[in-house]
Amino acid sequence: MREELTKALDALVDDLLQQTPHVSHSAVVCIESPKHQFRYAKALGQARPDSGEAMTLEHGFHWASIGKTLTATLILQLWEEGAFGDEGLDRPLGELAVLPESLLARLQLHGGTVYGHKISLRQILCHTSGMKDAMQDGIKLTGAEAGGLAADSLLGQLFFDKAICQKFPSPMLPWDKSASADARYAGIINFYCFDDQYAKTALFEPGKGFHYTDTGYVLLALIVEAVRGKPLHEVLKEHIFDPLFLSDIYLAYRSDPELEACRQPESEIYFGEAPCLSTGMDLSFDWGGGGIVSAAPTMVLFIKALMAGELFKQSRTLEEMLAWQCPEGLKRPRTAAGLGIFKTEYPSGELWGHSGAWGANMYWDPDSDIYLGGTINQVMGNANWHWRFFELLKQSFAQ
Question: Of the residues 11, 134, 234, 328, which has the maximum number of CB atoms within 10 A of its CB?
Fold first, then answer.
């Protein structure tokens, strides 16, 4: 039975490189099910077009927004230590005394009322702050309204206007607090606050809806740095990587290992037919919202440890992370939002975890105790490629 299952999984991995209209040039999938004593891992395709090297299980890839789960973990560790006082995660940003009032006043304006100082940590963690996502949203249109990426969003400008890329520092700063108000390209938060356009077009009052936003997670990472008194990459190493004995993981552009030109040997990411890393594209905007790089086995190790509560001192902290909410505006396949993590439905049940825009997925099926981590390294690919693996495994284990 296990031999047949492995062959069937191999066929699914092979098929990942055949899906159209935008073909993936590489794929890696790592699966574990402690309950069923099953492990599977396979890498396929070409890792780099510039070197021609084959994709392996050891190749690091960009996790993109899966990094939000790690940022949320750092915030929850601080909450567990009492860093946010009696109100905890419901404490408003204005009472934290971490971010300056001048910044809070430029984050959220809705219906003529300034809400930046009233936004809570919990609302940012579960994307109910009402803030726009500077990465994908524009001033007039959200990313969804624009078909995925507004032309005047940060990523819209970076991907489609090479001249803009030269205006940002490299690596991109999360926030240059010393820059003048008109220094739009000084950092991510500077871009968001420029001329208060994003604040003036906030989508709803805090807590009154759901809108996914990278901007909030940049703020959370800034809070982590301020409270810990250390750069984000050092906090990640001290509080997540080292406790789990993870050695092949890092925050890109901040704690890189020795890399060759164009970030070799990191596996290439494609935006449709266009390669990103080998052409010199700077992805340092993925910071607190998703700058993690590592291999698929490490991704599985992380989510297993997280779901086992190994990164927290008290069981109630994981319970807090998984206290599911169903805010208005949350769309399927997401069925509930936790803190830095989502519950999603698929044809054979539900999954807990997170996905990343570069084609990465990190999920656990709590019913069947199946963990999966991997990527297809394709922005325009099938975001739900992992469903078929879970369906096959669940059906096989039920026999």
Answer: 134
